[in-house]
Design goal:
96 residues; alpha+beta; globular; 3-stranded mixed β-sheet; binds iron/sulfur cluster
Length: 96
Amino acid sequence: MKWEDICTRCGLCCHEKVIHPDALVIDTSQPCAFYDEETHSCTVYSERFAKCPRCEKVTPLMAAFGRSLPESCGYIVWAKRHHIRFRKAVENVIAG
Ligand code: SF4
Ligand code: SF4
């Protein structure tokens, strides 16, 4: 399986978020300017890091330790399944 195939294309990471110590709040009313809400995809995928300074590359390290992805993210689920998720689960608040 390719690394990119782990993403379920939920699009949650392409919205504004606030990271609290015990919760991740994602505002679904504020998508990234490059997020297509119809297709749930990025309109500048191949050049996303150049176009969008806030766009984060998801790596295995991020899946293991990161704070910015929701518990439902395919990469977090993948890391948990492989016993390499080393950050305590936090409440996810999906607002918007
Ligand atoms: S630029 Fe990044 S954050 Fe914005 S829609 Fe594309 S993948 Fe999502
Ligand atoms: S939150 Fe995870 S599964 Fe959802 S679009 Fe972002 S990287 Fe993919």
